[in-house]
């Protein structure tokens, strides 16, 4: 069993090491062939994963207070909801100004489909993600208020 100081130091080194590695990897992908927009989904994943790593470090090694944990959980909900909303909206713009999409399918055969359906689907996904994020944030804030009052 490790002591508290040893856990804090080793946890900090491990969290910093993984952070340096994944942020350098994301920067390499974004500045290379993929470019900023090609690397943006990877950045979103990296930021979320590093948030999990920092949360685990704070929970396990620093014994963070309940308020800090709740704040980080609320920030995670907002970040994930924003990422899904952005992804849906960004995908919908791929189909804007197109009349038809050629679909290659070995099961159904090749066919064309109106692009508007894809655009509307991804816009609906973006609006649904934003609404779900709002509902989850309101529920979390309500739960936090109940805990602080009770």
Main sheet record: 2 strands, antiparallel
Our measurement of the CA-to-CA distance between the termini, rounded to an integer number of angstroms, reads 36 Å
Order of helices and strands: HHHEEH
Proportion of residues in helical segments: over 70%
Uncertain runs with pLDDT below 50, 5 residues or more?
none
**Spatial shape:** flat
List the strand order in the largest sheet. Answer: 1-2
- Estimated share of beta-strand residues: 5-15%
Compute the number of helices: 4
Total strands: the figure is 2
Radius of gyration: 21 Å
Structure overview:
The chain has 4 helices and 2 strands. The protein is mainly alpha-helical and 150 residues long. A two-stranded antiparallel sheet has the order 1-2. A hairpin with a 7-residue loop joins strand 1 and strand 2. The longest helix has 35 residues.
Summarize the structure.
The protein is mainly alpha-helical and 150 residues long. The chain contains four helices and two strands.
Feature tags:
mainly alpha; 5% strand; 150 residues; two-stranded antiparallel sheet
């Amino acid at each position: 069993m490790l002591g508290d100081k040893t856990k804090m130091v080793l946890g900090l080194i491990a969290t910093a090491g993984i952070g340096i590695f994944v942020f350098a990897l994301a920067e390499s992908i974004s500045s290379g062939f993929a470019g900023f927009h090609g690397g943006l989904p990877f950045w979103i994943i990296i930021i979320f994963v590093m948030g999990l790593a920092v949360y685990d470090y704070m929970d396990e090694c620093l014994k963070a207070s309940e308020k800090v944990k709740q704040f980080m959980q609320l920030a995670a909900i907002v970040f994930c909801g924003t990422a899904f909303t952005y992804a849906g909206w960004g995908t919908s713009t791929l189909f804007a100004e197109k009349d038809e999409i050629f679909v290659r399918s070995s099961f159904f055969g090749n066919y064309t489909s109106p692009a508007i359906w894809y655009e509307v689907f991804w816009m609906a996904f973006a609006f649904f993600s934003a609404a779900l994020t709002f509902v989850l944030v309101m529920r979390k804030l309500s739960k936090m208020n109940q805990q602080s009052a009770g």
